[in-house]
Specification:
By secondary structure, the protein is an alpha+beta fold. It has a domain at 34-72 and 97-135: Alpha-Beta Complex (Aldehyde Oxidoreductase, domain 3). The chain has 2 helices and 7 strands. It has helices spanning 46-59, 113-125; strands spanning 34-38, 42-45, 65-68, 74-78, 91-99, 104-109, 131-135. α1 runs antiparallel to α2. The longest helix has 14 residues, at 46-59. It is elongated and about 55 Å long.
Length: 137
């Protein structure tokens, strides 16, 4: 799974309400020929990113090349069950990537279009948001 090697602050705020708008960067296909683009705002955790990557690589049978365009660099904390109020912030449970609409999540190259479409469709089923398959021109 993807986790940051080091970080400046161990815990961060959640940024629930202020994460709005469309993606300005990372919205075009840069490396491959086919891509999976996010259509909603979400926090995608490292397990979901890894599950999508595995679905792609298993379907294409290690034939092409896969690029992961997002990285889970935001720590998400959680308190233990039945802990009373107070006593500080919980411990870090997982890392998440903040994704805006239009962000390219995966890119793929080196396979036929029908294989790429079905591989990216399988990866989209592993993610908690609506996605769209795009082709470079």
């Amino acid at each position: 799974m993807l986790v940051p090697r080091r970080y400046k602050h161990r815990k961060q705020h959640r940024l629930r309400g202020s994460f709005k708008g469309k993606a300005m960067r990372g919205s075009l296909i840069s490396f491959g020929k086919y891509g999976l683009k996010a259509m909603e705002i979400a926090e995608i955790n490292s397990r979901q990113i890894e599950a999508g990557r595995r679905a792609i690589t298993r379907y294409i049978k290690r034939g092409g090349k896969v690029w992961i365009r997002i990285f889970p660099d935001k720590p998400v904390t959680q308190k233990a069950a039945e802990v009373p109020m107070g006593s500080g912030k919980g411990s870090v449970e997982y890392y998440a990537a903040l994704v805006k609409p239009g962000t390219m999540i995966y890119e793929l190259d080196g396979v036929d279009e029908d294989v790429a479409r079905s591989a990216l469709k399988r990866a989209a089923q592993k993610l908690p948001i609506k996605c769209k398959i795009v082709v470079a021109q």
